[in-house]
Amino acid sequence: MTSVMGTRMLRKEDPKLLTGENKFIDDIHAPGELWMGMVRSPMAHAKITSIDTSGAEGMPGVHSVYTGAQLQDMGIGVGALPCAWPVTEDMVNPPHLPVAVGEAKHVGEIVAVVLASSRYEAADAAEHVVVDYDELPTVSSLADAVKDEAMAHSDLGTNKAFHWPLDPNPEGTAAAFANAAHTVKAEFIQQRLICAPMEPRGCLAIPSPAGGEITFYSATQVPHILKVMIAATTGIAESKIRVIAPSVGGGFGGKLNVDPDAILSVTLANHIGLPVRWTESRSEAAGSSHQGRGQIQHIEAAADENGKLTAVKVHLDADMGAYMMLITPGVPLLGSFLYTGVYDIPNLSFTCDGWFTNMVSTDAYRGAGRPEASYAIERVMDIMAGQVGITPEEIRARNYIAGGEAFENHEAASTLVFDSGHYRPAHDRALEMAKVADLRAEQARRRDAGETKQLGIGMCTYVEICGLAPSRALGGLNYGAGGWEHATVRILPTGKVEVVSGSTPHGQGHETAWSMIIADKMGVDPNDVEVLHSDTAKSPLGLDTYGSRSLAVGGVAIAMAADKVIEKAKLIAAHQFEAAPEDVEFDAGSFSVAGTPAKSVHIQELGFAAFAAHDLPDGMEPNLQEQVSFDPPNFAFPFGTHVAVVEIDTETGGVELLDYIGVDDCGHQVNPLIVEGQVHGGIVQGAAQALYEEAVYDEYGNPLNPSFMDYLVPSAAEMPSIKLDSTVTPSTTNPLGVKGVGEAGTIGSAAAVINAICDGLSPYGVTDIEMPATPKRIWEAINSNGGAA
Amino acid sequence: MIPAAFDYTVAESAEHAIQLLGEYGDESKLLAGGHSLIPMMKYRLATPTQLIDVGRLDDLAYINRSNGHIAIGAMTKHAQLETSDVLAADCPMLQHVASLVGDPAVRHRGTLGGTLAHSDPASDLPAAVLALGGTIVAQGPNGQREIAASEFFTGYFESVLADDEMIVEVKIPAGTAGWNYQKFNRRAQDWAIVGVAVADGGKGISLVNMGSTPVRATAAEEALAGGASIADAAALAADGTEPPADLNADAEYRSHLARVLTQRALEAANG
After folding, report:
1. Cβ contact A774–B186 (<8 Å)
2. Fewer CB within 10 A of the end CB, N or C, for chain B?
3. A121 at the B interface (CB within 8 A)?
């Protein structure tokens, strides 16, 4: 049997998705269900002086209306929503109730909830709840929060939530700057982004009034985490809670939270004994779904006369939003370790201050901290190259870890150990594919001719930390859980293989990838493998999907469980052959005694033997089923080189992304088709930050672009046909040699695109441009320097 | 994103629709393709209590040659304009502009009559009809009247159309002489941040999203007629306009874009 690993097998998930057979949250209904309609604050910071629900109560279809104060009185939904990552001992964490009591802290915060028999009736009734507010001073931007004058929380006396340092060798950093031939100092703004998965958030809580159980359907990335958190927040026994993530239409981090809406639906359903559901609208999401990024980066770098970097110093101001959600404070810190990038820079000093604002919370969004870090160091590399007088390609070549040669176990200045890397081949291949020499010639021609449309070429050489995560490392960061993943593999009596995955897909293709791993390990047809997932009753143990962890942690657990099944099956085969186990060989699914290959038994045939248990070796338990909880010894560090080519219309400020090349290295690939899909999407999402997307707020904290008319998610029409290649540097942290790839594209692309724009505009004296690089910003940048090349 | 309650009636004919408009008064709204009205209703920015569906009046979907002009039924969809042989031969500009509206879904639902009646200054087709010197045929309880496009638009989402009138036809002078349409936006599917339509070599220049209505660039037109160079005429493109400000552009940047795009459109139309 030939190996299926590494082949472009079509996804097993797709026929059901393409024919509409899959059930998403809105396809699932329970008899008697009620819809929640949220009354949300239109004010960013205000005292709630009165709430009159009487106008809504008698409306058609209305079951009941609850204010935050009423829920507190009734003892429902009293628990504050959890933050699992208190990054410092003294982190400020104001209580975040599902429904606000007393004060609203951001536009979109729930102040009352209506239950009605249809979505429309719930929305109509919510409009008739009358709330009076007294406006309070508003912190409507991170820059304002840092001034610490107006307070996002009236009673805290400061907007600062925490101060977190990572400074292993302050003397080394100071000495490096004192002795530097070149220094660069820059400030970058990481604008807030809306997660915008294709399917909005939604949930359905179905109670069992007599038994006390709750079945909770949720469009979530994290059913297992949700189960624990619902129990911890509501007091419902964990053993009574079953969480099911049906087909989930993307998340990008936006569905890994414990949202007020989720907790409310559970507590209300439990209280009234009827199913309660909710699906957000897009404009509702803009004020209530957590957002990504939201940082101001202050970065300084020191280099010697040859452009060899000797130190990086970073201070990060991070916008928490109004409340700490599940991992809000930890997200910026995930980037802290990457501010030295793929470079051998001996000193790193990093500090981060978290700040409260009167905007919806920030939390994980594709890349979560690492795209920001990669952006900052990659912009700095280009600026430093300009200062030293060498090309962006050359400064990178001079600074790569191990001089660009292959390495294992490199301890970076952050003290993190990079598992493996080999940076120069990806760099060379990307430049070759982009035909950079030709592009530079064309760029020079256009510049000389003074053409309206100028070319810009930008590169980014990124590294990322993925495979979240070694539990000990998470413990060291004060994260409130581990980072292992659980897997079960069983051979059924008929020989089919059943895999139970703790990691929960929401579009990634786990069923295909896990089937391929099993097919290769066990020598079975991938179509003989069924993967169970996303239901805590079928898969009780797991830590779900985020941080590019599914393959590097969960997939490895699958492979290890398969090995254990094979080991046990081998003992049964040996028993049947009346041979010593050490004389039995396993090849392509079949066991045979060494030297007599004619007599063999296939592992799938042993499923029935183990099930019937008529003739097993003495003392052996029946059934072929094994499980593994895999806790990786280290993170995995994928990397790559991206090149972006832009054409800038210098009269209008318009930018077109002409070409995009990505050469990525995620170690061994299970399915290159899935890898390419992830990289494509990731690149577009990063390019979107560079060119299109920003959650904009006015001075009163109102979201100004809460719809897809104004919040510009790019489409295929805006993107070139992306050109990809890969190199393979196996990870040393797991037996499959795999690294994650879900976030890599996003981590490489924003910097590549902005570097390209700055390169194109360099004759106009433009050295930086704020994201998103809108036509207006580009036009202003050109004209602020006189408008002439 | 959840509209308020409303009633819905399918009109059997233009006359029936007009009769219903009279019956239900200003709480009613004609529904054609719905791609502007329905989103406004979902945001509850529009809360008509009665929708009168004219989108099924197939006898108002036609593109015919008629005495030197092209007669286009009000319920003709953008996709029909985009693929029309008559327009390809006799008014390629309208065909081209229709192909740039929104995305394919919008173009298969949106209608020419609907977009004119909606009178959104950021829409492509109203400005094109204005530059082409089109005429809008409106029908009311007392019969039909013809309104020049230059007299039709009165303000944001407002026109001279009476509450009990509907557009039934649009007349466009046939013509293939030097035309061009410049649409500047950030994504292919978006409204124009600024658009410029040039018809008949520059005798008709109109601007998209440069005021509360689609507007003629009168100063530029006059300069060109008086013998000015394209560059000199284009420099006057924003004169007399009051461009709006939004997240994409302020008035200054819009005026700049209008000048740049007018120059490009005039050069292309006369190239």
Report:
1. yes
2. C
3. no
